[in-house]
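Today's session is about reading a structure prediction critically. Students often jump straight to the picture, but the first step is always the sequence itself: look for stretches that repeat, for charged clusters, for runs of hydrophobic residues. Only then move on to the predicted structure, which in these notes is written as discrete structure tokens rather than atom positions. Here is the chain we will use throughout the hour.
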Amino acid sequence: MTQPLRVLELLVSTGLGGGPTHVRDLVAGLPRAEFTLTVAGPAGGPHEQEFRSLGADFVDVRADRLSVGVLLRVIRLVRQRRIQIIHSHGKGAGLYGRIAAGLTGAAAIHTFHGIHYEGYSRLYLVAERCLARHSHAVVHVSESQAHEARALGLAPEGRSRLIVNGTDVARGRASVERAPLSRAALGLEADALVLGTVARFDPVKGLDVLLRAFARLLRRLPRAQLLVVGDGPEGERLRRLSQSLGVQARVVFAGFIPEAVRCLPLMDLYVSASRREGLPLALLEAMGCGLAVVATRAPGHVDVVEDGVTGVLVPPADFERMADVAADLLADPARRLAMGEAGRRRAEARFALSRMLTEVADLYRGAASFHSRGPHPPGV
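Below is the predicted structure for this chain, in token form.
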């Protein structure tokens, strides 16, 4: 009987974000008879318990910090568990995973969940290009991200793969039905017009722009409320900004909520102000739940939102345009309903999780076959 392929999913975070959510879907969806997944990353994030509850073997590895000790720990883990494929997610994980693969004979796969290159040093880009050339595959989660990667030299010919993110619309509906949330439970008014977002509190998510847009929107729609689901390092700054804008009484910072898809039925409109994305899973889930969306015309968003059909795209950082478009949609329930239904159909037809899982499984099979000599034995 063929033994399952041994895969290490190496993460820089177990908090909110595309990488941990993507790995959660792999753990839940890849066939156990064919793949044995070990998940490694910093302990303590909300996804850690989710990995464990899904049956994954989780190992605490601080891949979010630069340390020779961390690299040695990854190498030791690969050798001890005879890992055949190292699939890394995030900058630090990509560095450790690909060096460890080179030293152990495992196949290296790295997925970019957004290329946030502003502020990157030239040295980092040179290093990333070198690592890409020594990877079995570099995966991009959207066509717009792949285009960016090619322009930056991060998509080497023959090693670049496009595997578009997916969502399970039926699973989202089941989560809502199994554990529904009420507006009252989150501090939302029953008759409010609610726009909302689910995001990691990080500068790239543009939540400061969203708050400024909401302040402008309130002048037209004083009954509106903003629901912000998530957490992160920008939390305190964003709360102070809401106070300085005078909107704190109309903004609900709900924090991290397990299975955040359950919050979506409480919203009338979904908004994403990100400066750039890979391919945003929260936005896909919102469309899967039948919500019209307003999103910035940014990488990742342009792959998901059909402008004027499933939502409206606005220029990044243009809070005035975002506010005006959102206010128009909140005042037009028939248009919102039509966009939401079109978005649900698009999510089901174009962004199915089953398709993504099939493509990742095929990539793993090919990587294992190409690196058939396997890793070095323990202790080498």
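Discussion point for the tutorial: The chain has two domains: 5-166+353-370, 169-350.
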